[in-house]
Amino acid sequence: MSNPYPSFVQIDAASGEVSPFTGRYKKHLSDLEGIFHDRTAWSDAVRDLADPVVYEVVEYRQDGCDLFFGTTIIAPGQVGPEYYMTRGHFHLRRDRGEVYSTMKGQGILLLESRSGQTEVVDMREGYVASIPPDWAHRTINTGEGPLIFSWVCSVDAGNDYASIRERGMRKLVVERDGQVAVIDNPRMG
Ligand code: PA5
Ligand code: MN
After folding, report:
1. Residue pLDDT, tens place only, 77-95
2. Are 102 and 141 in contact (CB under 8 A)?
3. Which residue puts its alpha carbon closest to atom 10 of ligand 1?
4. Is the pLDDT of residue 180 over 70?
5. Per-residue confidence at 189, pLDDT binned at 50, 70, 90?
6. Neighbours of ion ligand 2 (CB under 5 A)
7. What does the alpha-carbon distance between residue 138 and residue 81 come to, in Å, rounded to a whole number?
8. How far is the CA of 87 from the centre of ligand 1 (A)?
């Protein structure tokens, strides 16, 4: 990669597109095995909905910069009562936080400390959240359209997915009686 300074990057708030970008990936529902609480609803949805894209990440890295940034675009949808969401992760480096800025849509940023403390942070246009170092973070789209946020992180933060994949997070975000509800994860007793 060789991107000379000064750099200028555009982020389109309506679509989340980053131009130019240096990397991107999509997560389909089939990539998210074990993430949603209702495993049967998940496999039924993979089959019945032809394995939709749940979210896309687009990023921009600049040579020689200790930070990188990008966007995450989460589609609206549910697996059973649970809203579409990201995998969630801790950073490998325990001294690295992150900043999320919501550009479009509505959702929840779920934070969880190593000791199991939980914070539920509102995501809506113009809201900016600081993710403290060593807190797991997952974003959930509770709205009817896409949830789009930009993020800025240290290039050396690294992502630890295994801890969340293996034990889940303590809270689930679900639709209950037509409302968004944050409930205890029954698997975590
Ligand atoms: O750096 C971040 O925390 C974000 O860019 C996330 O990686 C992104 O939202 C996708 O989530 P996850 O990495 O948990 O699948
Ligand atoms: Mn992160």
Report:
1. 999 999 999 999 999 999 9
2. no
3. 86
4. yes
5. low
6. 98
7. 17
8. 7
